[in-house]
Amino acid sequence: EVGLLLKVASDGSISRMLVSGRILYGERVRDALVRHLEKDLGPLALPHIPPNPSPFTIAEYFPDPEISGFVDPRHHAVSLAYVIPVSGDCTPTQEALNLAWFTPAEAASSKIAADMTGGQDRLLRLGLAHVGKLP
Q1: How far is CA 130 from CA 26, 29, 77, 81, in A?
Q2: CA 28 – CA 95 distance, rounded (Å)
Q3: What is the pTM of this model?
């Protein structure tokens, strides 16, 4: 199953989102992944992160939606994207309003894509394809 958060987006809309966040200065990628997963899914999510995680893709976000399809109105940003399984109890925390679980087919549907902003629906489909679960 695929877990998607319901959060308030930077444009003020309520949107389905993937766990995301920035890497802090001097922070290892693996530590940043753990920090963001625990921040959004709770301390008991129990993520399975390999010792040396590798992204399945790199997405470039631009203020202009015409450039890459990945949009961040604030700035140009580079995103390393990972598929991280979790086996614990996930509870939305901090800014998340809700956490819902979907089958890969449901997550890749146009209905869910319509609830996502900034190209996150594309990133979700790329992740599903990476693990062989894109319907």
Answers
A1: 29, 20, 22, 11
A2: 24
A3: 0.91
Greater pLDDT, 94 or 127: 127
The tens digit of pLDDT for each residue in 86-120 reads 999 999 887 789 999 999 999 999 999 999 998 99
* Pairwise CA distance, residues 99 & 103, whole Å: 14
5 bridge partner residues? 17, 99
Sequence-ordered strand ranges (E) for the chain: 2-8, 14-17, 57-61, 77-81, 98-102
The CATH superfamily label for domain 2-130 reads Nucleoside Triphosphate Pyrophosphohydrolase (3.90.79.10)
Backbone angles phi, psi at 54, to 5 degrees: -120, 135
Asked whether the CA dihedral 25, 29, 35, 41 is positive or negative, the reply is positive
pLDDT: which is higher, 8 or 49: 49
Q: C-alpha 102: how far from its chain's center?
A: 14
Confirm if 102 and 4 have CB atoms less than 8 A apart: yes
- The tokens 């590798």 sit on which residue? 54
For the chain, domain boundaries: 2-130
